[in-house]
């Protein structure tokens, strides 16, 4: 009985997590780079092979909308994240190693 109840609670928690937007869970994140004067490419698609119509700067604040696995490099543990800039409202894709996530994630 206890196991069945715990399983039901676990499944309910998973269902609830599916409803919460990743952006809401992450909050407002910050762009970073090893060079404080760097321009961080904002891509049109989640790949280095897509156009880079704009750029961000270290310290820019972004809302993470969605993240997907990096498929450019075999075995990569990075993600591409679709972000919206807090100030300009511009939207594009940035690789996760250029983002300091508000929740400490990757």
Automatic annotation (TrEMBL):
<protein>
    <submittedName>
        <fullName>Peptide-binding protein</fullName>
    </submittedName>
</protein>
<dbReference type="Pfam" id="PF08239">
    <property type="entry name" value="SH3_3"/>
</dbReference>
<feature type="domain" description="SH3b">
    <location>
        <begin position="40"/>
        <end position="99"/>
    </location>
</feature>
<dbReference type="InterPro" id="IPR003646">
    <property type="entry name" value="SH3-like_bac-type"/>
</dbReference>
<feature type="signal peptide">
    <location>
        <begin position="1"/>
        <end position="25"/>
    </location>
</feature>
<keyword id="KW-0732">Signal</keyword>
